[in-house]
């Protein structure tokens, strides 16, 4: 009986359905355009962006009341990165990618450090 009571409520995670939907839509559009790989990356990135911006409930607080949804910066960063990579595969020269990825990773590391030190 206790196992049924401990079952987590799956409703707060509805905003993650945009990620596989974005992948499938991106794959379909990419196949039509002749770029299936970049299409998947762009669709995946857009799914992350929509998931990060979706205003649904993000779980509940300790008192049992639902917390209002807000932007998830991590999902937004991942989504933007994937969209930029997808677009860049089609339009950007290959010699630029090692530098672009290195700069992104450096900025991501600095962001993690700043978030860890300045967290309330």
The main pleated sheet reads as: none
How many helical elements?
5
Spatial shape: flat
| Proportion of helical residues | 55-70%
Residues in β-strands, percent: under 5%
Describe it.
The chain has helices at 2-5, 18-33, 36-53, 73-91, 97-117. It has 120 residues and is mainly alpha-helical. It has one domain (2-92). It is flat. α2 (18-33) runs antiparallel to α3 (36-53) and α3 (36-53) runs antiparallel to α4. Helix content is 65%, strand content 0%. The mean pLDDT is 79.
Search tags:
mainly alpha; 120 residues
Question: What is the strand and helix layout of this fold?
Answer:
Layout: H1 2-5, H2 18-33, H3 36-53, H4 73-91, H5 97-117
């Amino acid at each position: 009986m206790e196992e049924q009571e401990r079952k987590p409520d799956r409703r707060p995670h509805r905003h993650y359905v945009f990620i596989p939907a974005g992948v499938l839509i991106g794959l379909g559009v990419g196949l039509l355009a002749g770029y299936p790989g970049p299409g998947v990356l762009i669709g995946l990135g857009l799914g992350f962006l929509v998931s990060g911006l979706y205003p649904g409930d993000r779980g509940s607080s300790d008192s049992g009341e639902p917390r209002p949804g807000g932007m998830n910066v991590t999902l937004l960063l991942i989504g933007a990165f994937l969209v930029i990579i997808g677009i860049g595969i089609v339009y950007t020269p290959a010699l630029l990618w090692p530098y672009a990825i290195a700069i992104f990773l450096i900025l991501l590391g600095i962001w993690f450090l700043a978030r860890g030190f300045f967290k309330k």
